[in-house]
Amino acid sequence: MFLQVGIAMKVREFYDFARKNLPLLDEKEAKNEANILLQYCLKLDFTGIFLERERNLTEKELEFLENAISLRSSGVPVQYILGSWEFMNMNLKVGEGVLIPREDTAVLVETVIKNANFSKKFNLIDLCSGTGCVALALEKNLKNFNEIYALEYSEKAFEYLSENIKSLGSKVKAIKGNVFEDYNLFEDDYFDCIVSNPPYIKTADVKMLDREVLHEPETALDGGETGLDFYSEICKLWACKIKSGGILAFEIGQGMHDDVAEIMNNSGFEKISFSKDINEIIRCVMGVKK
Fold it and tell me: Taking a C-beta distance cutoff of 8 angstroms, is the pair 146, 168 a contact?
């Protein structure tokens, strides 16, 4: 226990408590996470917390916040503690066993939205879908669709995918399947667009990731010896499922754009283009099927 029984703590005092008990974070990060935890716990926005800064936290609130600090100190992601996270103005359920949606992935979604020319009803599939964040964001922003599918292999991740589809009232069709095996569920030339944020960390590098990231499922991180396994196999197995003129778009790791572009070019894609994230890192590669 960090706190002594019977010792009151004001809302404003929790920031100092968080800073002292979150050794993994600097002062700015600790204050930001303290604010996130307070907003969730107290069901208040930033202004509401400011207005209630002088009130004492209840015993139940203190219990939740202390437990949250303890979990964060051991490296558990704050998103798992909260059980949900926002991605492109959607509140998605997350937890142990599924990759946490990140801001970087918005570049993939935005690239498809910008480049899609779907004048007719279109079919789209999101491979290695995880929480479904990509498929759900595309559904929200591209209204002229016929079918949108989300393919996910992991049992646990598929549960979150299904929950998110249900909670958002989405028409995305979840498929529990293996990207390496279940391409034959669809006829050739069926899709106008295939998108994927596949595992792309080199196997040797996975164990070197921050311990917070290591709480996320290894199967959603490990992209094989070179980090390119999924890009190669998706292009090999799924290219024939895309119509001529259709698009394939990937999220990629830093510095992988040339290798992924070469794989796509050798698999019948042209007009290869790159999109950068907020840090000016190339984060998305897109190509058009010949």
Answer: no
> In this structure, are strands 122-127 and 145-152 parallel, antiparallel, or unpaired?
parallel
Helix axes 229-238, 257-266, angle to 10 degrees: 20
Q: Are 214 and 166 in contact (CB under 8 A)?
A: no
Kindly give the residue spans of alpha helices, DSSP state H, lying in the chain. Answer: 11-21, 27-42, 46-51, 59-73, 78-82, 106-115, 133-141, 155-167, 203-206, 229-238, 257-266
**If DSSP codes are grouped into helix, strand and coil, which group holds residue 274?**
strand
User: How deeply is 142 buried, as exposed, middle or buried, from its count of CB atoms within 10 A (0-12, 13-18, 19+)?
Assistant: middle
Residue 178: both structure tokens together: 């293996």
Q: What is the pLDDT of residues 3-13, one digit of tens each?
A: 554 568 899 99
Does residue 140 surpass a pLDDT of 60?
A: yes
The length of the chain is: 290
Instruction: Tell me which residue has tokens 């226990």.
Output: 1
Closest residue by Cα to residue 22 from 14, 30, 34: 30
Helix (H, G, I), strand (E, B) or coil at 146: strand
Q: pLDDT of 70-117, one tens digit each?
A: 999 888 999 999 999 999 999 999 999 999 999 999 999 999 999 877
